[in-house]
Amino acid sequence: MWIAGLAFLFLFWRPMATLAQDWWSNPDAGQGLLLFPVALYIAWRRGRAPDAAPQPVVGLVLLGGAILLRYVSGLAAELFTMRLSLLAAAAGLVVYRRGVAQLAHWWLPLLLLLFSIPLPVVVVGSLALPLQLKASQLGAWLLRWRGVPVVVAGNVIHLPGLSLFVTEACSGLRSLTALLALGLLIGGLWLRSVWGRALLVVSAIPVAVVLNAIRVFLTGFLVYFVSPSLAEGTMHLTEGWALFVAAFAILGGAAWALAHLERSRPAVR
C-alpha cells in the first residue's frame, strides 16, 4: 500500500501541485479551496458502502487509463486533462480497494471534486463572452426601465459622458460556477430524488445570469445618478458579495420548496 501511495504521488505530483496553486492564486478557481475539504469531509461522514467489495481488475483498468491520460496530457501540457487523470486515478484506487459500489456511494464528493477543477482557458473564453453580452443586454434593459439613457454595443454600455465595459471578470462565470457547485452540494445533502437535485442545479443558471444583470444595472444606476467612482473599488465588490448572498438565499429557498414537494410526492424518484 505504501508503494502504491508513493507511486501515485510520483506520477501525479505535478497536477496536484498546479491545482493547489490555481486554487490559491486564480480567482476563477478559488472554489476549490472550499470544495476540496468539503468533499473529503462528506466522504468521511458517509464512510464505507454496505456492499463494498474489492474489484482489482476494474480498478487496474481505471488506473491504467488514468496513467495513459496523464502521460498524453503531459506531452500536450494540457492542465485540465492532466487534472482529470488525477481524479480518475483516485477513482481507480477506490475501485481497486472497495469496488464500484464505494464509488457510487461517494458520488457527491466525486462531483464536488470535479467542480473544483478549473475549466480550460478556451472553454472559459467561449462561455464568458455570451455571458458578458447577456449581462450587458439585461443590465441595459433595466437601466432603460429606470429612465437611464443607454446604448449597448456588444459588452459596452454607453451612458451620457461615460461608458461601462462588462469585462470577462464581470461576466458572471465565477458566480455561475460557484452557484452550480453550491446547488450540487445543497441538492446532494437536502434532497432525495434525482429530478429534484437536477432541477436545483439547473436553476442556478438563470439565478446567476439574472443577478449578474442586476449587478450591471446597479453599477450603471449608481454611476449615472451618484458618482462614476462607484463603478469600481469597494462598492463594486460589495455589490458582488451582496448579490451572491441573495443567490444563496434563492437556492436555499428553491431547495426547501423541492424538499417539500418530495415529501408530498413520495412515490416520485
Instruction: State the distance separating the first and last CA atoms.
Output: 40 Å
- What number of structural domains do the residues give? 2
What is the chain-wise order of helices and strands? HHHHHHHEEEHHH
Shape call: globular
Helix percentage range: over 70%
Provide a descriptive summary of the structure in words:
This protein has 269 residues and is mainly alpha-helical. It folds into two domains: 117 residues, no CATH class; 142 residues, no CATH class. It is built from ten helices and three strands. The chain has a three-stranded antiparallel sheet, with helices on one face. β1 and β2 form a beta hairpin. α8 runs antiparallel to α9, α8 packs parallel to α10 and α9 runs antiparallel to α10.
Summarize, please:
The chain has 269 residues and is mainly α.
Helix and strand arrangement:
Blueprint: H1 2-25, H2 32-46, H3 56-76, H4 79-98, H5 100-105, H6 107-115, H7 121-145, E1 151-153, E2 156-159, E3 162-165, H8 173-190, H9 194-225, H10 234-264
Antiparallel strand pairs: 1-2, 2-3
